[in-house]
Amino acid sequence: MKRPKLFSVAIVAATITFSALSSVAAQDDLPYYLKDRGTGVPLSMFNTFIDKGEFIFYLYYEYYYDQDSEYKPEEFGHNLGQDFQGRYRAHEGLVFLSYGLSDRLALELEAAVITATQYKADDDTSNMPDKLKESGLGDVESQLRWRWTEETLGQPEVFSYFETVFPLQKDKKLIGTQDWEFKLGTGMMKGFRWGTMTLRAAAEYSAAENKGELGEYALEYLKRISKLFRFYLGLEGTQDEVEAITDLQFHVHPNAFIRINNAFGVTSKATDYAPELGVLFHF
């Protein structure tokens, strides 16, 4: 006898829900300060942690919407060194890979393909065309993540990271990276009954400008709000570009979750709005 389609769908949904509940049930045995995040090493991807021997594959899409993106025409090979503000739009597809080498050390690799368009400002009198558009390989970067101390009841977890961005787009002006870039950062994380807080900061070096400066800094909050959902709220900046970030994970399977992320520009130089949607698999 053939089962009704509705019945089959209900069985599949119930199986997925049961599997997701089983995958987080072990967290109930953890001390309260680890229940939001588990025992893994924190990764650069918001709200994501990795254990020894674990492999993470994350495939996602991001859109950039900015009405006042700052640019100089000379940066694109044109005849003015003055700052202007024009519209910017971009579509980006990314893949993120990570492997937990040990209880303290993790390796990351991320690569992107992107289509970006910079529109000329109304008051820009340079010989730049009305819009510049480039497509191709975006940023390609890797990170080493190191945990100095594991969190206990009385002390926070302390971690550091080293990032390398590879110069694979020497002939592009709008997308990718034209010269070597490096970043060295550190942070601390502590779990409470009301959520987990993280504070981090980094210094960065650009070979193109031959100088180092303060890089990214962030204050982050994480909370597991149910068996299936985990919520993140962060404030992240790089110099005078500051954005507020929300991130929601829906754990649909023991080895996968859906991520919905939104970034909103807090300062004028930050991107106005950058939503992200992806699926993360971990094995």
In words, what does this structure look like?
The chain has about 280 residues and is mainly β. It has a single domain, classed as Beta Barrel (Porin). About 5% of the residues lie in helices and about 55% in strands. The chain is built from 1 helix and 14 strands, in the order αββββββββββββββ. About 5% of the residues have low confidence.
Structural class: mainly beta
Q: Taking Cα atoms only, what radius of gyration do you get, to the nearest Å?
A: 21 Å
H/E topology pattern: HEEEEEEEEEEEEEE
Q: Roughly how many Å apart are the termini? A: 37 Å
Mean pLDDT: 91
Concise account of the structure shown:
The chain is mainly beta. The protein is built from 1 helix and 14 strands, in the order αββββββββββββββ.
Which SSEs are present, and which pair or pack?
Elements: H1 5-25, E1 41-42, E2 49-50, E3 55-71, E4 84-100, E5 105-119, E6 131-149, E7 157-165, E8 181-192, E9 195-206, E10 211-224, E11 229-238, E12 241-253, E13 256-265, E14 273-282
Antiparallel strand pairs: 1-2, 3-4, 3-14, 4-5, 5-6, 6-7, 7-8, 8-9, 9-10, 10-11, 11-12, 12-13, 13-14
Write a concise keyword list for the protein shown above.
283 residues; mainly beta; Porin; 12-stranded antiparallel β-barrel; two-stranded antiparallel sheet; 1 helix; 7% helix
